[in-house]
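Worked Example 4.2. Read the sequence first, then its structure tokens.
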Amino acid sequence: MDAKAKVRIATTSLAGCFGCHMSFLDIDERLFDLVRLVDFDRSPLTDIKTVGDCDVGLIEGGLCNAENVHVLREFRAHCRILVALGACAINGGLPAQRNHLPLAGVLQEVYQTSPGMAGGMIPNDPELPLPLDKVHPLHEVVHVDYFIPGCPPSADAIWQVLTDLIAGREPVLAQRLIHFD
């Protein structure tokens, strides 16, 4: 296949644990097959820090702060197809467990009640991204084309969606590939 005809794929991570990227890497030896079919932009397989125009963008993590929102919007602008990986991207995941608490109370508990390295002060540096009042899933801010559920999704589920997209097919996940644990 001609290099210009290859599908271009990028990945990024927002507020989460990077477990979805680990599942992506768990494709194992199939990564060699994937490399023959695609070109990678920003991903754990490259050292590219910014994203160029891509055919498929895989994104994990929810939206906890203003920087997450900025990265998501920029990533979406460069990806023809956006695939949300895992529970954090789809519904906020574990970070969203703070959503039933007021942000000020969470910050006070973490920085002023519990012992820590912040010296009892809530960090207020302009270099730090502003936290959002709630953790949001990606589809509340941008259009998401496909969702791969799981925490994390299995390597087989990611492989199935990628190979379907590369082949120009509508991705279909068999029930055995979908899990929510």
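Now turn to a second chain, presented in exactly the same format:
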Amino acid sequence: MVMKHYPPQFKADAVALYRSRPGATIKSVAEDLGVNTETLRNWIRTADGRRPASHSASGAVTPAPAADAVQAELAAARKRIRELEEERDILRKAARYFAGETRW
């Protein structure tokens, strides 16, 4: 079987065509373009920021490295949220303290 190499613009246009046709299946769009169904599916996954499915010898799908980056970003965001909540609580306590101090 010969591997065909498609230009990046063709891949992007194929993904755009699939997304612009509501209700269209990957199979129907792939047939219209003359490409393999799995090839188009992989292009769509790549465009979505996911790695195309690759299987190890056991048949299990290998995890995408992008998931590690997402997890790291999520952990950093949660840490920042905790810091901001702590700052907010300190400011609330200070506001209550000063509000009570100004009353006669």
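Notes for the reader: DSSP finds four helices and no strands in the chain. The chain has two domains: 1-52, 63-104.
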